[in-house]
C-alpha cells in the first residue's frame, strides 16, 4: 500500500502529430513529432506529502520541403505480422503515402513504431541484404520493442540517408507465439 502512495501517477505518452495540408495543385506536408514523459512521484511523511512533478516534452516541427528541418514524405500504416514472420519495408519505391502515391525516400527524418501486442516482441533492423542502416552503428544492429512498447528516433537536420537498391530495406520481425499488430510512421524527404 505504501508503494501506491509513493508512486501515485506515472505516465509515458507518445505524441506524434502528422497533419497533411493540401494546397491547390501541390502536395504540402507539415509535421510535428514529439515524445513526452509526465510523472508525479509522491511520498507520504509524518508531517508532509512531498511531490516531485516531471513534465518533459521533446518536440520537432517540420516544414514542407527537402532541406534541414523539413519533410515532404509520410508513410503511416497499421500492420500485422503472423507468428514468427518478418517483413522488409522498402523505403525506395514500394511504400505509399495516405493517398496511394508511391514513396521514394532519400532521407528519413522520423521513425515511430508502436507495438500494440500484449505478448509479442518486435525486432527492427538487421535486414539480410540491402539494409537501411544509417540509424544504427552497425548493419547487424537491431532494436527490440517489447509488448506494449514503442520506439521513436529523429534526425531533423540531415536525416538518415536511404540508398535505393542497396540500402533501403527496413526489417520488422515478430517473435514466435502469436500475431502482432503494430503502428508505424516514417517521415522523410524525396531528395
Account of the 3D structure:
The protein has 1 helix and 15 strands. It is mainly beta and 191 residues long. The chain has one domain: Jelly Rolls, CATH 2.60.120. The strands form 4 sheets. Strands 5, 9, 12, 13 and 15 form a 5-stranded antiparallel β-sheet that branches. The relative contact order is 0.23.
Q: Give the topology string: H per helix, E per strand.
A: HEEEEEEEEEEEEEEE
The tally of helices reads 1
Mean pLDDT: 87
Number of domains in the coordinates?
A: 1
Rounded to an integer in angstroms, the radius of gyration calculated over CA atoms is 19 Å
Distance between the termini: 56 Å
Task: Summarize the main sheet.
Answer: 5 strands, antiparallel
Helix/strand/pairing class, anyone?
mainly beta
CATH topology: Jelly Rolls
Number of strands: 15
In helices, the fraction of residues equals: under 10%
Q: What is the global morphology? A: globular
Strand content: over 45%
Regions with little confidence, pLDDT below 50 for 5+ residues: 1-25
What's the architecture, going by CATH?
Sandwich
Amino acid at each position: 500500500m505504501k508503494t501506491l502512495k509513493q508512486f501515485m501517477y506515472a505516465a509515458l505518452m507518445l505524441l506524434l502529430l502528422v497533419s497533411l495540408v493540401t494546397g491547390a495543385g501541390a502536395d504540402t506536408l507539415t509535421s510535428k513529432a514529439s515524445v513526452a514523459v509526465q510523472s508525479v512521484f509522491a511520498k507520504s511523511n509524518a508531517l508532509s506529502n512531498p511531490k516531485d512533478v516531471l513534465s518533459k516534452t521533446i518536440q520537432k516541427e517540420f516544414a514542407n520541403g527537402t532541406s534541414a528541418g523539413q519533410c515532404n514524405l509520410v508513410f503511416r500504416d497499421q500492420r500485422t505480422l503472423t507468428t514468427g514472420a518478418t517483413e522488409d519495408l522498402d523505403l525506395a519505391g514500394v511504400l505509399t503515402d495516405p493517398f496511394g502515391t508511391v514513396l521514394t525516400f532519400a532521407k528519413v527524418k522520423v521513425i515511430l513504431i508502436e507495438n500494440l501486442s500484449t505478448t509479442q516482441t518486435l525486432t527492427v533492423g538487421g535486414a539480410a541484404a540491402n539494409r537501411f542502416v544509417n540509424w544504427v552503428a552497425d548493419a547487424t544492429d537491431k532494436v527490440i520493442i517489447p509488448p506494449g512498447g514503442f520506439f521513436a528516433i529523429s534526425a531533423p537536420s540531415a536525416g538518415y540517408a536511404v540508398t535505393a537498391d542497396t540500402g533501403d530495406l527496413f526489417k520488422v520481425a515478430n517473435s514466435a507465439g502469436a500475431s502482432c499488430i503494430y503502428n508505424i510512421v516514417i517521415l522523410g524527404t524525396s531528395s
